[in-house]
Amino acid sequence: MHRQFVVQLDNRPGELAHLARALGERGVDITEIACAGTGPIACAFMTTSNIEDARQVLKGLGHEFIEGQTIVVDVIDKPGGLAEVAEKFAKAGVNILSTLTVGRRAGVVEMAFAVDDAEKAKAALTPCQLAGVG
Question: pTM for the complete prediction?
Answer without folding.
Answer: 0.76
